[in-house]
C-alpha cells in the first residue's frame, strides 16, 4: 500500500512555509519516520526536508513526486520538537523551517552542491571537454575557478547541451580513529621479549608496555604511540607480524575530556533557606506536576547548590534535567560542578563547541544516553524525551532572547516544554526580571526567597565614586580611590575583578581642527580603535580600516582618540601597577575555542591579580579570593534609548557586586559614576532589589510598558531611506485601520543607529493589552514583507522585543 509524507522543505520563504506531499517508495517505507531528514526533488533541485506527517492516502489531486532518500539512521526531530516548531513559528510569525534549523546542530543543516550534467543534445566535443574525466557523468561546480572552463560551461548551458542539478550533501560526519588490540597471548609476548635482540629498541618498548599494561588494551593508537614512545610506521610493521590488530572505531568528540574536577562531588549541607527551596521543588518533582518556581536569592546565597540537589532528585525519579546559563563564559564553571556531581551522564551544548563536538553531544542526547544537559540559550531545544526539571540560571538576562530570526525567548520555550512534559521549571536570579517577579506576585509562579549567604558573611560594602568630584593623578578613567583600592587588594595577595562594558581601546577618533569623526562607511557609528591589531573596527558590521595618520577631511595631523575600552584600561593598569598581572576577558580575547575556560582557569589558579572584562565577567563567577570589584563606568547603559536601560544597569551592578567576598574574606565594591543619585545606581549600592522593583514597576505602569502591556516591534529596512520610511508609514496606516483604539502605535521613527550594513532602519512599536485582530494583521504584514522584497525592502516582526537597535 502506498504511503505519503508531508515534508517541510529547506527553503525559508513565504511561499514554501507549508508542507509538500511526496510519495514514499516501497524500498524506503520502513525507513521514513515522522521527524526524518530526507532528500526530495523540488523544481530542478534536490533539497533537504523534514517529514512532519505520514499518511496512507494522498491529499494531492495530481501525481506526487517520489521522496529520494532518508539522510539519517534515526530521525533528528521527535514528535515534541515537531509540535513545538509549529507552535513557535505561529507565535513568532516566522518560517517553520527557520525554527527547525535552530533546533538542530549546524552539521544537520543542508549543504547543497551544484553539478553539471549532459543533456541528450550535447555534442561530442563538448562532452569530451567537460565530462571525459568524470566517472559519474556529472561535473562538480562548487570549486571551479578556471575562467576558460567557466566560459565553456556557460556556452553549453545556453545551447541546452548541459543542465545544472542540485544535490544534498550530508555535513554530519562521524569521527573515527584507529584502535590497537592484542594479536597474541601473554605467554607468547613474554617469550618474544626474552628472545629478541638487545638493540631492537622499539620492539622491546612495545612488548614491555603490553606485558606491563594488558588491561589498557584495546587502546587508541595515538595513546599507545604517546605512552610507549613509538611510531605509527613501526606499528604497521608489527601488525604484519601478527603481534597486534588494528581496526577503525567511531569515537565521540568529547568537549569535557580536559575538564578538571576539584573536590566538588559531594552534596553540601544546606542552610534553612536552601532546605526550604529544595523541599518545595522536590515535592513538585515527586508529584510530577507542572509548576514554575522563581528562586530569588541574593548573590552568593547558594542557588547553584539548590540546582544540583534538585537535579539529583529528578534523576532519582528516573527523569532528565536541563539547565541553561546565559553566557558561554559561565558554562565551564557550571559544567565542572554538574559533572563532578553527576559524571558521564552530563552533556554540554553551546556555541563555543566545534561543529563536530556539538554534533556528537547532540547525538548522545538524541540517543537518550545522558540525563543532564547544561548549555546556553539554544540548549533549550536539546532533544531530551523524559524531562522532569528545567532550570534557567540568571533568568533575567537578555541573552536568553535571540535577536536573529527566529526571535524566540528561551524562558518562553522552557515554559512550553515544561507544560508538555508536566515538568518543573525553576527560574533563578538575584535580580529577577520584572515580568517574572510580577507573575510571582500574582501567584502564577511560586516565589522562593534566599536572603543570606551560607558563609554568614554580609553582602559586600558598595561605595560610589562621584566622578565629578573624584581626584585623578594621571588620567580620567581610573580615579585615585579605585587605583588605591586595587593596589591595597593586590598587596594582601587577594584578587580584583574590574568591569568595563566596552571593548577595544578608544571608541572614537576626532580631528581637533575640523571636528571630523571617523565613521564606518556602512553604518552610522564611529569606528573603535583596537590597538593590539592596529585597526579601526566597526562593532556592528565588522568593517576594518587602518589607523589614519591624518584627518581624512582636512589632512590635519591633530587627531585624538577619545573614550576608553578594555584594551586601554589594561594598558593603564600595567603602567600604574606594573607589579600586577592582568587578564582581559572580552569578545576579542575569547574568540578562540576554549578561550573563556583558559582565562577563568588561570584566574582561578591565581595566575593573575586582576580580571578585567566586559559584562561576561559580571555574573555567575565564583572565585573565593576576589575581595574587590571595581566598576569603571556605571553610566554607559543608562543612556541607551531602551525602557529597560535602568533595569539592565541595576542588574549588572548588583550581579558584578556579588562577585566580591564570596568565601571567608569580606568584599568591597567601588563604582565610578557621573550619576550617583540615579535610582538604579543608588538601589544597587544598597542591594535593594525590592525597592528597585517597586520603583521601576511604577515607571512601567506610567509608561505603559511590560509587564503591564505587551509589545510588538516592526522593523522596515532598505538601502534607500525614503523607501524604508514610505513602507513603514503604509504599515502604520494598516495598523491604525485594523486595530482597536486601545492599541498604542508609536512611530515610525528611525532606529537609534539608523544605518547598519548599508541599510536604513525604521521602527514601529505596538503596545497593547488585549488585541484579538493583532495576529491576523501581523500575518498580513508578513505577506506584504514577501511582496515588498521586489522593491528591496525587508520587514521584520519581533514579538516581545528586548533590543531596539
UniProtKB/TrEMBL annotation:
Essential cofactor(s): Zn(2+)
EC number(s) stated in the UniProt entry for this protein: 5.6.2.4
Record-linked HAMAP family: PriA
Keyword set, alphabetical order: ATP-binding, DNA replication, DNA-binding, Helicase, Hydrolase, Isomerase, Metal-binding, Nucleotide-binding, Primosome, Zinc
Family listed: Belongs to the helicase family. PriA subfamily.
Enzyme class, broadest EC rank: isomerase
Binding residues for Zn(2+) 2: 520, 523, 538, 541
Organism this protein belongs to: Holzapfeliella floricola DSM 23037 = JCM 16512
Gene Ontology annotations for the cellular component aspect, listed alphabetically: primosome complex
PANTHER family from the UniProt entry: PRIMOSOMAL PROTEIN N (PTHR30580:SF0)
Lineage: Bacteria, Bacillati, Bacillota, Bacilli, Lactobacillales
GO biological process, one term: DNA replication initiation
Catalytic activity: ATP + H2O = ADP + phosphate + H(+); Couples ATP hydrolysis with the unwinding of duplex DNA by translocating in the 3'-5' direction
Every Helicase ATP-binding domain range: 284-450
Entry GO MF terms: 3'-5' DNA helicase activity; ATP binding; ATP hydrolysis activity; DNA binding; zinc ion binding
Protein name: Replication restart protein PriA
